[in-house]
Amino acid sequence: MAKGGALKSVLRFKPIEPDPDKRRLSHVASVDDLRRIARRRLPRGVFDYVDGAAEDERTLARNTAGYAALEFRPRVLRDVGKVDTSCILLGRPLPLPLILAPTGFTRIVSPDGELAVARAAAAAGLPYTLSTMGTRTIEEVAATADGPKWFQVYVWRDRALVKDMLQRAQAAGYEGIMITVDTAVLGRRERDVRAGFTMPPQLGPGTLIDGALHPAWTWSFARSEPITFANVTGHDGDAISMSGFVTEQFDPSLSWADIEWFRDNWSGPIMIKGIQTVDDARLAVDHSIDGIALSNHGGRQLDGAPPPIELVAPVKEAVGDSITIICDGGVRRGSDIVKAIALGADACMIGRAYLYALAAAGQTGVTWLLKNLRAGVERTMVLVGATSLDELTPDLVVRRPGV
What we know:
TIM Barrel, alpha/beta, 403 residues, 8-stranded parallel sheet
């Protein structure tokens, strides 16, 4: 071999990636990596709005720690040459037991906001849930993404406004509604308080300095149309005054009786998001609700609420197969989804994880995340010895002693 031939035979120069989003993702291995990129790219106040939670943020920490406290009991020699991650959720076939949760003010992270997330979800064949507090309209999301879609609803004082949104969602082809019930009042999110952060951000010395340190976000934000609560119609005012209006709309007198109003005004499946006890799960069954999301609002409401993953097994034991169970909160890996399914959940839901991905690399980042989670579910199933979701049973998961 000629001099230097051995070296040339093993050297391979990596082609230069012209797409900046794909370049950023080239060294990403996990949701934690996406979070680090998001933290670097977003102004501090915006990142803390996405990343933060209520008061001391103990519930936020426990949401993810709850998965870490569980370990697998893998079975071997099980012929796992072919693995099927598909499921049927509320009558809809899905390639993966995963729903993209509703998140408010998504355009604060990236200009396309909900449209980018809905397109990525549709490409993956997964349901996307548009928030009442979304920054793209019901109709815009329906027009841009042909995948399964849900609409998340708050029980507001102005029922005419809520009824209008339900009618629009029905007309636009949304398959079901998700009623959020843990916001009788808004939680105290102290990162936002300390930073003086408002939605949308208001200009001030701190904002200008932060913006200068994050020029890509600032340039995109400055070039985009104003951010508003796109689905709240019939009231004049910009996003700042609308924010005050929305806060006043949350109704602390909400009760189970209000759910019947939704049944009178919606003909599709109804899911309740915010169930945090076995007793309320039983009540949801008594009220013929189609599905429940075990959720503490990502730790953003009541600090000290139970982690959803710790509710799955007792709720499943109490209600059996009489209602669909979604585990919402703390999912960061495909193995987390496997743990939740093994304990009795029918699917999981993610919110923060895809906001990190959106901040890191736009729609490309969300697409990467969904592929990563699916690969993680497949790999974990192989390693625990399961070829289908039906084979993910409670005996495959145990809580670590002393945790």
